[in-house]
Design a protein that fits this description.
Helix content: 25-40%
Radius of gyration: 16 Å
Largest sheet: 7 strands, mixed
Structural class: alpha/beta
């Protein structure tokens, strides 16, 4: 379990640029040739957790929980399995909002715009890894927990347009059109196109 210690606005954030530099520095904790982890230590927020490759499937959940390199939770195990099963050589777990909270109800009530800005910088980086970035929308109905989350997604869609990103979902969408969360999907689930612009227009 991860219960936030307080609002992230009270923290001195590591910028994504700083976090990426550290993530590319050899670590005694994990194999940096395999893992991409930024920040590269356990903290109140996380920008990226995934494996390194030239053609990653970028999965977007709502917010990070407790997973770390070599200690994936069931959600990330499902993400990795589906990424590999759909022909990708790696996966990157990204999130609409970077604050760690096992229970989304514990997320802060207002958006920390500095944290969101750094999260967007991380998103642009992962989009730049492949020539044709594939983004898997996987946040489920949890996006309704905070009003600012849909606006965060709008910023990500705009960034994705700069890099020619294609958006996908997996499994059935909810009655309100939310893309399915990665947990409880079939092992052989195939991703399919997701009209994220139409989805946001309905919000």
């Amino acid at each position: 379990m991860h219960i936030p210690k307080g609002d992230t606005a009270q923290l001195e954030l590591v910028t994504f640029e700083e976090a990426l530099a550290a993530a590319n520095t050899p670590s005694a904790e994990y194999d940096i040739e395999k893992w991409l982890y930024a920040p590269n230590f356990y903290s109140e927020y996380r920008y990226i957790l995934g494996t390194r490759g030239k053609n990653p499937l970028i999965c977007i959940g709502i917010n990070p929980s407790t997973a770390a390199p070599g200690a994936l939770d069931n959600t990330l195990k499902s993400v990795e399995r589906i990424a590999l099963g759909n022909g990708f050589d790696s996966f990157i777990m990204f999130n609409v909002y970077a604050q760690r909270a096992t229970n989304p109800d514990a997320m802060e009530k207002t958006c920390n715009h500095k944290l969101h800005k750094e999260n967007l910088a991380a998103f642009r980086y992962v989009l730049s890894i492949s020539d044709k970035p594939a983004v898997w929308a996987a946040w489920g109905a949890i996006i309704e927990k905070r009003d600012y989350l849909a606006d965060c997604v709008r910023d990500m869609v705009e960034a994705g347009q700069e890099y020619g990103a294609s958006w996908y979902c997996a499994g059935a969408v909810t009655k309100k059109g939310h893309p399915h969360h990665p947990l409880y999907l079939r092992k052989d689930e195939k991703i399919k196109p997701f009209d994220v612009a139409a989805y946001l227009a309905a919000r």
